[in-house]
From TrEMBL:
Protein name (record): Imidazoleglycerol-phosphate dehydratase
Protein EC: 4.2.1.19
CDD domains xref list: IGPD
Reactions catalysed: D-erythro-1-(imidazol-4-yl)glycerol 3-phosphate = 3-(imidazol-4-yl)-2-oxopropyl phosphate + H2O
HAMAP family membership: HisB
Subcellular location: Cytoplasm
Pathway per the UniProt entry: Amino-acid biosynthesis; L-histidine biosynthesis; L-histidine from 5-phospho-alpha-D-ribose 1-diphosphate: step 6/9
CC terms in the record's Gene Ontology section: cytoplasm
Family annotation (Gene3D superfamilies): Imidazole glycerol phosphate dehydratase, domain 1
Length: 197
């Protein structure tokens, strides 16, 4: 079973995350930030990874800890559920259109965390979410999931579309990367013999 459950409590946030990499895209997300919930729900639905994510964070301070820790915990769960990564596709790429916007996401579950971010928001907020935290969310998930993650907004104007196209592209690229490849039959997809970084 490629599942994981992480409970993580700090002085800033109290988090529970459960995932099933071989799910159906069923989700139960509540971070206290509506727009962030909407994005993580898109991630689940389009990756087919089941995601339960409950965050009780210090939103009276600001949204930083809640946003960051939701991504750190989700990434940690992905790492735990993948185990030794035997038999997975490892790489994923998606072009993600949404109305006037086109985003591209390319990733490698390499064990080497890296974020290349080439997207720009022209609004300070999407709903209640500070848009500067979106890049930070992807940086954080890349760190704990061990993903080399390249995200590009090729074009687009509407900030909601830009953000949603990126999350959906990330979801579809992750779906490809975590999917078992029957031709690999339990092989570690690296000539190094490991994908631990
Ligand atoms: Mn939307």
């Amino acid at each position: 079973m490629r599942t994981a459950r992480i409970a993580r409590t700090t002085s800033e946030t109290d988090i529970l995350v459960e995932i099933d990499l071989d799910g159906t895209g069923a989700y139960d997300v509540s971070t206290g930030i509506g727009f962030l919930d909407h994005m993580i729900e898109q991630f689940s639905r389009h990756s087919l990874i089941d995601v339960t994510l409950k965050v009780d964070g210090d939103l009276h301070v600001d949204q930083h800890h809640t946003t960051e820790d939701s991504a750190l915990a989700l990434g940690q769960a992905i790492t735990q559920a993948l185990g030794d990564k035997a038999g997975i596709g490892r790489y994923g790429t998606a072009y993600s259109p949404m109305d006037e916007t086109l985003a591209r996401v390319a990733l490698d579950i390499s064990g080497r965390p890296y974020l290349v971010w080439n997207a720009h928001f022209t609004q300070e907020k999407l709903g209640e979410l500070d848009t500067e935290l979106i890049e930070h969310w992807f940086h954080s998930v890349a760190q704990t999931a061990g993903i080399t993650l390249h995200i590009e907004q090729i074009y687009g104007q509407n900030n909601h579309h830009i953000c949603e196209a990126i999350y959906k592209g990330f979801a579809r690229a992750m779906r490809t990367a975590v999917e078992p490849d029957p031709r690999k039959e339990g092989m570690i997809p690296s000539t190094k013999g490991q994908l631990g970084g």
